[in-house]
């Protein structure tokens, strides 16, 4: 077990502002909440020697574009959000056990439905797994032109504001969350196709093997705990705090949540 003295600096946790229900800040001041935030607190409490009191955590704001650089530069100790475990990222960083299983979806504006004769203009995060899943998907039945944005928030803003953009590609849960905040029925539609299947994990530095092993051991404990079931219900079945709607997802749906037993 990794232990720290009482006067040790807080654990610096990289978290995002605009990726509900995983990590988001409902207020202008950066105070992130979400599934990944709650899970990180439970896990790090165990890593640092006990569940109560929770260790001091310093939330450091990162984006999809800055999170890897902040970790490599040592400005954060761990990144806990919605980062997909990929072979490419594994060459640069370590990852925890999977914390969530995801696929990607495409949302289109009303009147911009795809067809074989139409090129769909799609925005998404530049260099993201959503972009890769879209570009590698076979049999879509339509052509597309991709426009890159630096973050999920920037992609969403561009999708809403730019009349030349027809669609947006992103993680399904994040996309459902963004759509849940819209109150105009028929304004947008999700295409039926799911692009790829991947898993999220907590991202750590390659050199922090002891820390990484402790995080995995603690994750196994947390996955088997009543607290974890409460977290799943809170963020995927109940009304999302500060947002006023529910994703109405089953917290036991294995299509989304990769369960990990302590016996593994």
UniProtKB/TrEMBL annotation:
Keywords: Signal, Transport. Gene3D superfamilies: Periplasmic binding protein-like II (3.40.190.10). InterPro entries: Bact_solute-bind_prot3, Solute-binding_3/MltF_N. Coiled coil: none annotated. Residues 10-239 form the Solute-binding protein family 3/N-terminal domain. The keyword Aminoacyl-tRNA synthetase does not apply. Transmembrane segments: none annotated. Residues 1-20 are annotated as: Disordered. SUPFAM superfamilies: Periplasmic binding protein-like II. Residues 1-10 have a biased composition (Basic and acidic residues). Belongs to the bacterial solute-binding protein 3 family. This is Substrate-binding periplasmic protein. It comes from Streptacidiphilus cavernicola. The lineage of its organism: Bacteria, Bacillati, Actinomycetota, Actinomycetes, Kitasatosporales.
């Amino acid at each position: 077990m990794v232990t720290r003295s009482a006067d040790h600096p807080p654990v610096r946790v990289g978290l995002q502002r605009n990726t509900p229900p995983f990590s988001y800040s409902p207020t202008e001041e950066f105070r992130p909440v979400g599934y990944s935030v709650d899970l990180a607190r439970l896990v790090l409490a165990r890593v640092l020697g006990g569940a109560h009191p929770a260790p001091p955590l310093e939330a450091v704001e990162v984006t999809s574009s800055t999170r890897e650089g902040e970790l490599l530069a040592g400005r954060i100790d761990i990144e806990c959000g919605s980062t997909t475990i990929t072979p490419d990222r594994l060459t640069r960083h370590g990852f925890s056990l999977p914390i969530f299983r995801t696929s990607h979806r495409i949302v289109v504006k009303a009147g911009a439905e795809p067809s074989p004769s139409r090129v769909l203009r799609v925005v998404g995060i530049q260099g993201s797994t959503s972009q890769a899943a879209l570009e590698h998907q076979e049999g879509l039945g339509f052509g597309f032109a991709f426009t890159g944005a630096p973050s999920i928030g920037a992609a969403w803003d561009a999708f809403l504001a730019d009349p030349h953009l027809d669609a947006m590609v992103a993680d399904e849960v994040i996309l459902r969350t963004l759509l849940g905040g819209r109150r105009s029925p028929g304004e947008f539609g999700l295409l039926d196709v799911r692009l790829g299947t991947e898993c999220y994990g907590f991202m750590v530095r390659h050199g922090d093997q002891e820390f990484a092993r402790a995080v995995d051991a603690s994750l196994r404990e947390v996955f088997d705990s009543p607290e974890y079931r409460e977290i799943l219900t809170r963020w995927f079945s109940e009304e999302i705090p500060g947002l006023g709607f529910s994703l109405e997802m089953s917290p036991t749906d294995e299509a989304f949540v990769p369960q990990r037993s302590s016996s593994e």
